[in-house]
Amino acid sequence: MTPAARTRTAVELLDAIILAAREGGASADVLIARELAARRYAGSKDRRAIRALVYDAIRRCGEVPDSGRAAMLAVAAHDAELAGTFDGSTYGPSPIGAEEPVAAQGVAPAWLIDALAASGIDGDQAAALLGRASLDIRINPARVPVGSVQGMFPGAQPIPGLPFALRLPAETPVEASEPYRAGAVEVQDAGSQAVTLAAAAQPGMRIVDLCAGGGGKTLALAAAMDGRGTILATDTDRARLSRLAPRAQRAGVSIVETRLLNPGQEAEALADWADRADVVLIDAPCSGTGTWRRNPEARWRLTPARLARLVETQARLLDVAAGLVRPGGALVHIVCSLLDAEGAGQVDAFLARNPAFRAEPLALPLGAPHEAGMRLTPLNDATDGFFVARLVRA
Ligand SMILES: C[S@@+](CC[C@H](N)C(=O)[O-])C[C@H]1O[C@@H](n2cnc3c(N)ncnc32)[C@H](O)[C@@H]1O
What we know:
By secondary structure, the chain is α/β, with parallel strands linked by helices.
């Protein structure tokens, strides 16, 4: 494809992504993969270049742009070579008009900038939310001697404080590697690994992973439990939860039981675990403001109403979880968001409703104290953004 044809394809993809963001359609990743698969004339170099153009444009525009072309023009405004591809050639975009609208640049929609600033995330901290994410893996000590893995991935670097984590060069094909197939490694952000340590999982414990999804944190808990104890992994999403069993099998984990929940009926479905868990981990559904490095278009999808619904669900899940924790046990609240409404504020409200719980100070290898818990940010920790708190029942 010519550079001009790549630009035009990127503009078309952006139109589809903008529409999906407005109407709650598929994610940018899914749309890009689907569209490029349909364009058989696009080779692997073309695909990489188009993908990079699309993500550059998404990152650059804080508010939802009016059109894919306006978004791409925002990139072209700083890139003469790209501007030159608007050349009116057969497969290229038409030339840039003198009065053409160009999408405004920014970190996020104005209401979200305000909400982040009110949570102490502004300036460089806010800009870093749109940086490049790293590729991290977690080593599974049940499958491989920990020290042997670094040599299996060229360029792998240890991450201080996280003995099971390695940071790999971007584009390392982890999922095609032999250690991955053998269950010796999982792809998992170092921040995600660090916040899971707040559970302080130990062999023999009984743990509920209430929002287990595909089991990223479940498997990290299981590794810390060294194959002894029980983890009940629950979720309301059948497709996500169904990915857990094969992953657990690959990792050689046999202490995990899964249970599909109905939204709104979680407490009833978990009545047999009332007052019995040593730890309940809530990796809550959230706005994902800490993961914009990976899903920058997520900030175009979030609305105040959707955020309010998420905050409501998180509060309900915290109350459900409280009923499962044994006296002396702990509840761990995690969100991959930097908005206090979902993190520190959510925990404060829970503690006010549940005087039997108190926040326990955390000392994690990454992050800094924030209100009743700790916070990790892309700028300070080079990880996704997280808030985590550990709440202990009297
Ligand atoms: C942040 S993701 C979990 C990621 C997962 N723990 C991991 O480490 O890979 C949040 C999960 O909460 C689930 N969820 C949403 N509402 C829920 C509910 N009412 N009860 C339990 N899980 C819920 C979602 O389906 C999603 O899988």
